[in-house]
Specification:
The complex is a heterodimer of chains A (247) and B (60). By secondary structure, chain A is mainly α. Chain A contains eight helices and no strands. Classes of the chains: A mainly alpha (247), B mainly alpha (60).
Amino acid sequence: MRFINWFRFSSPQSFYPLAAKMIPLFAGLAVIFGAAGLYISFFVAPTDAQQGEAYRIIFVHVPASWLSMFLYVIMAFWAGVGVSLNTRLAGMVASAIAPTGAMFAFLSLWTGSLWGKPMWGTWWVWDARLTSELILFFLYLGFIALQSAIDDARRADRAGAILALVGVINIPIIYFSVKWWNTLHQGASVSLTRAPSMAKTMLVGMLLMALAFWMYSIAVSLARARAIILERERHAVWVEELPELKR
Amino acid sequence: MTWNSTADFFAMGGYALYVWGSFGIAAILITAELLIVRARRVAALLELRREIVARRGENR
């Protein structure tokens, strides 16, 4: 087995070109999964017996909600790595993930509201699931605001990491809220312990859309991380010698 | 196939506002995010070029 020095990729200098190679791959996968997912969402999945066509909102809503929680955990993980191992790149990756996570949290709330109006008769209720997802959105916004309020990038990373790590407590609260409290929001549609409570085509559509969002998140976070590297490493010699700066 | 016509498809069984409002905002947000990230990179490169030119001027 060949020895791979993984720490080599933990420097911004080697991560920058590596990310450039990975972006088209993940963007391509996002387009493929997205096209398949949309096709199933609109042309294969049957009309729901109770909810009519309005249920098709779940093809955006459920994947967006999953990603909003998943990205938060990944962001907090990298923020924690940045603080504990004192690596610059980990903090940059955490900052690169935050806006995408916030976008999916907003999308989850927005689509949930559009589903709630025709189905529950209200745009919003202060239900445990909805409220904890709103808190997640505010945690993302707080993380972004806190980081942009501190001029020194390393200090901003540390402050952000503390906020992100404390906020992780909210993730199991969102996930289990439908079990712990008597919520208006329905229980989990997909569970690891029992058979899914929906038609197979609906499940496949949802999973494909989730994969599309996941691949998109990776691609866009890598692109944002590259921009952040350019901003923060602007005094490094290797940045100055980048081909995109030669004219 | 669930749909009898294109109009039928866009009507979404009377839930057009809610269904297209959801998929539409997703498309808008994703497009906006891609444009914002693109702009951030362009701005960072512009700033770098400016700094490099300024530094060369100092060294002369």
